[in-house]
From TrEMBL:
Source organism of the structure: Ancylomarina subtilis
Highest taxon of source: Bacteria
SUPFAM superfamilies: Oligoxyloglucan reducing end-specific cellobiohydrolase
Protein name: Putative secreted protein (Por secretion system target)
Signal sequence interval, chain numbering: 1-23
Keyword Signal: yes
Length: 957
């Protein structure tokens, strides 16, 4: 283990455990680090306990806000909607142009490696256990593909090809003897909050396997690319079910229920919620088949045809509406389950705004032939109190699941944000719900067994995760698998009623009626928003990542395969922008709506300290869901914050008082002249020359601020005339060797995506090249999320993260040829972020398969040397007061400058590539010695910052 990796890793572990170390006498050394990162240790819980002691307030994830954000960044700005069938059409665009995206040289020679996170999973709506072998599990990530385990979840293999559609939302096995090797999965996720055409990840129909889920083929009748959205209801699939009597397949989609006769791949619409042109579709549906072949279906109330239905044949026209009298008239998603031990007993859980308990209803159905007996048990559901996360909540139908224990018709499990079990089918009031604590006065038959922690403090239940989507039972009467926004969990005693752990013991749960273990053992389905690496430490392989639904996580690397050490959990909520600084003695994490924490290692007290640093004057409702900040590339104390319509600046975030959860009031000011329309969506500061800031907005505008560090800051708009109107600026990058070279991406569909300027925004060139469609094409080009540049041995290499994978180019012009990278590993997975470093280190964050990394041979910059920009202090002028001798340097040089008042100055040395190679803090006299150590021959820029700013040039022999 390299010393610098170990030390920085220990610092972060020390941060997570700083409170624990004070009370448990934990010694943070190499042995302890290995123990704490071993498989099975619950880092989420350790972080929660440390945060509780330290006082950091944890935040929930926000799925509906996230969906609206993803719609904003991808919608066609001309219509405000996502293009019809956008996922299929962009994949068809890739397929039709496959040959021009292939490179048999540089792009495919890069050795890309899966980085993890090994112990963190993503949103899992599809989950099933093989009826013939309890060790075989099939699970699917909403954007991460289908996965298969043959050892009970101890390890996983991805069975979806990287070049296939990566959405998996439901899975089912043919249960008939002789047919159990036949499996089906459905695709496409929808959220009722985003509008019909706002489904952020549309599907590709149904896939089939005949070898136990090892390989998959797509049903031919769902392989369509040019049909309008509402004629292709298979873009969204809620659930699938196989008739155990004959193998017929039923699919619940947006707008209806479809049937495939066994052995056929032509579907029949057997319940159509909008039978005529002017009718309305039901947004949500569900379908189950009982062991005797009785089919039950639900369709939400906005559909012209809606309600609860029953059928024996399953054929069109043979469905009986059985919605009970008294059922609410306004209802969204309704999920249902039968009791495996008595299929005449069924339960229905529905989101019913304004009715039931907290907007949800629960009904029991008992059948006896054609006789139906309904019972409304809605008021017995777990109630939401005044606290943050108690009770049942489906978050607008986003997270809903219901199952009945295989051997007990009265034991019902329901999932919303939390997972609950009722031992009497909610026949009696669940409240107060039991949490595993010994309370003889509590006679409830309901238990809080997953999701948020029973402490009700927005922390997570041990080895579990909020937002429930799927459940699967083994046939042993004890074991249950749970699929949620954090992957997959497993309990060996789902009937457990009392806590088996020891209070405050980090190795055991506390106040938990059911114990879980994580099955995220290489189940690589996380969805990354952002990535942070150390830009200055060329030997560092440490990575920070902000994940959707899962907060911020950290790892270091030194092997070449999947990083099987557990990543460490550092922040809650939806993980947003993150970064490492000050030789990894400081790191920054943020969550949704721009909430930012700075964590600093106090080298004197040998302890980690934290501070909330986002500005007090900004309303969180005014900023983006994933909201950017920028640390000045020449002064790590300066932070720029996207405050909605303004840029805010703090010249020293390290002076913000520690240990406060309140937004910061000290040091923040709005940058004059940065008020814009829309929301600021991307920020980037320069290296050479310093003090230049570029930023872009959600309405397609680009701006440049000169003298961004000082009161002399001046902002001008530099939007190019050919840039798309009202489009979302998803990234801005600045060449580290010359800030005149600027790269901008727009992430919307149906717009030109990538622009390049060599003159600081005076002129722009559309360099999207072959990533865009021809005018007569029925397809669409990809959504471009990020662009980064790396100086390689043979010249610059440009990497573009898109909605259909990672692409690279070696020359930017009006006909740029982009080639797809890592088709065998990253494939067509959405790539949200690409980070590069001077030493050739590249990290890629995907929206479904976690993190990848690679190394290429670095080279020197080939751009023109950076010169002064108009409006920025001229270094030649300031050099008259900066004396450097000897110059050129042999072993060391001394820098002298005026400092009559003994003010504190900071010296920064930048090499010719723009990389910061030396920082000397707290210089209070009028000179400082620079040793040659680690300085390579060549020209270096000296920046001296304090009461005044001095610049000079140092030549190293």
């Amino acid at each position: 283990m390299k010393k610098n990796l170990l030390l920085s890793s220990v610092f972060l572990v020390a941060l997570t455990l700083s409170g624990l170390a004070q009370t448990k006498n934990i010694v943070i050394n190499e042995s302890t680090y290995k123990k704490l990162t071993a498989p099975g240790v619950n880092h989420v819980r350790m972080a929660k306990k440390a945060d509780k002691r330290k006082g950091i307030i944890r935040v929930k994830d926000a799925p509906h806000e996230r969906l609206m954000f993803e719609k904003l960044i991808t919608q066609d700005p001309k219509t405000g909607e996502l293009p019809t069938n956008f996922r299929e059409r962009e994949l068809k665009f890739l397929s039709d142009n496959k040959n021009q995206f292939i490179s048999r040289t540089k792009s495919q020679s890069i050795d890309w490696k899966q980085t993890g996170p090994y112990n963190v999973g993503g949103r899992t709506r599809a989950l099933a256990i093989d009826l013939t072998n309890d060790n075989i599990i099939l699970a699917g990530g909403v954007t991460g593909g289908m996965w298969r385990s043959e050892d009970g979840g101890a390890s996983w293999t991805k069975t979806t090809s990287p070049t296939d559609h990566q959405s998996v939302t439901a899975v089912a096995q043919d249960p008939r003897e002789g047919h159990t090797d036949t499996w089906y999965y459905a695709t496409g996720e929808y959220s009722g909050s985003a509008g019909a055409s706002g489904a952020f990840y549309s599907g590709a129909g149904v896939f089939k396997s005949i070898d136990g889920g090892k390989t998959w083929t797509k049903f031919a009748d769902t392989d369509r690319y040019d049909t309008p959205f509402f004629n292709e209801l298979f873009d969204i699939c809620w659930s699938i079910s196989v008739d155990p009597t004959n193998g017929d397949l039923y699919v619940a989609t947006y707008g209806g229920i479809y049937k495939y006769n066994f052995g056929e791949e032509t579907r029949n619409l057997v319940i159509n919620s909008a039978p005529t042109k002017n009718d309305n579709y039901a947004r949500t549906t569900d379908i189950i088949c009982t062991p005797s072949g009785i089919k039950y279906a639900t369709l939400s109330s906005e559909g012209t045809i809606n309600g609860i239905y029953k059928s024996v044949s399953g054929n069109a026209g043979d469905w009986e509406k059985i919605t009970p009298e008294g059922f609410p008239t306004n209802y969204d998603r309704t999920v249902l389950a039968y009791a495996p031990s008595n299929e005449n007993i069924l339960y229905f859980l529905s989101e019913t705004p304004g009715k039931g308990l907290n907007g949800h209803s629960f009904w029991k159905l008992t059948t006896n032939g054609n006789e139906l007996s309904w019972e409304d048990r809605s008021l017995n559901l777990p109630a939401q109190g005044e606290d943050d996360v108690a009770g049942y909540s489906s978050q607008g139908s986003y997270n809903m699941v219901i199952k009945v224990a295989p051997d007990d018709e009265n034991m019902v499990f329901i999932g919303g944000t939390n997972l609950f079990r009722s031992d009497d089918g909610f026949a009696t009031n669940a409240n107060p719900v039991k949490t595993g604590k010994d309370d003889p006065n509590n006679t409830s038959k309901a238990y809080w067994i997953g999701g948020y922690a029973t402490e009700n403090n927005v922390s997570q239940y041990d080895n579990h995760h909020p937002d429930q989507h799927s459940l699967a039972f083994l046939n042993d009467g004890k074991t249950l698998l749970s699929g949620h926004d954090g992957g997959i969990s497993k309990t060996y005693n789902y009937k457990q009623t009392e806590d088996s752990g020891q209070e405050d013991d980090i190795e055991h749960p506390s106040a938990k009626p059911v114990d879980w273990e994580s099955l995220n053992n290489g189940y690589l389905t996380t969805q990354a928003y952002t990535v942070g690496i150390d830009a200055n430490d060329l030997e560092s392989y440490e990575i920070l990542t902000g994940f959707q639904d899962n907060g911020t996580w950290y790892t270091y690397r030194e092997d070449n395969g999947i990083h099987k050490q557990n990543w460490i959990h550092l922040g809650s909520g939806d993980g947003a922008y993150c970064s490492m600084h000050n030789n990894k003695n400081a790191y920054i994490t943020s969550s949704q709506r721009g909430r930012i924490y700075l964590n600093v290692y106090n080298t004197t007290d040998k302890e980690w300290e934290w501070a909330r640093v986002d500005p007090e004057g900004v309303n969180s409702e005014d900023v983006l869901f994933i909201n950017p900040y920028e640390i000045d590339n020449n002064n790590e104390a300066i932070m720029f914050y996207a405050g909605g319509t303004d840029i805010w600046r703090n010249t020293d975030i390290y002076k913000i008082p520690k240990f406060s959860n309140d937004a910061a009031s000290i040091g923040w000011e709005k940058l004059t002249g940065t008020t814009v329309s829309g929301q600021i969506s991307a920020i980037k500061s320069s290296i050479l020359p310093a003090n230049l800031l570029y930023f872009g907005t959600s309405e397609g505008k680009i701006y440049k601020t000169i003298n961004s560090h000082s009161s002399q800051a001046v902002t001008t708009e530099i939007t190019g005339p050919s840039m798309p109107e009202s489009a979302y600026v998803s990234s801005i990058e600045v060449n580290p060797a010359n800030a005149n070279y600027v790269y901008v991406t727009f992430s919307n569909y149906e717009v030109e995506s990538i622009f390049f300027s060599k003159d600081a925004g005076e002129t722009w060139t559309d360099v999207s090249g072959n990533l865009e469609i021809t005018k007569d094409s029925k397809n669409i080009g990809p959504s471009v999320r990020y662009l980064n540049v790396l100086n390689a041995e043979n010249g610059p290499v440009y990497f573009a993260g898109t909605s259909i994978g990672l692409y690279m180019a070696t020359d930017l012009n009006s006909n740029t040829k982009w080639t797809q990278v890592s088709t065998d590993k990253i494939g067509n997975t959405v790539v949200d972020v690409v980070k590069t470093r001077k030493d050739g280190f590249i990290v890629v964050g995907t929206h479904g398969n976690g993190i990848f990394h690679a190394n290429i041979t670095p080279g020197e910059p080939t751009v023109d040397p950076a010169g002064p920009l108009v409006g920025i202090e001229d270094p030649v002028e300031t050099n008259t007061k900066l004396n450097i001798y000897p110059n050129p340097m042999e072993n060391s040089s001394r820098v002298e400058f005026p400092n009559e008042n003994n003010e504190s100055y900071r010296l920064i040395v930048v090499d010719a590539s723009g990389r910061v190679v030396r920082i000397i803090e707290n210089i209070t006299n009028n000179n400082v010695l620079i040793n040659r150590e680690q300085l390579k021959p060549g020209i270096h820029i000296i920046n001296l910052e304090g009461e005044k700013i001095y610049k000079g040039k140092l030549i190293v022999k």
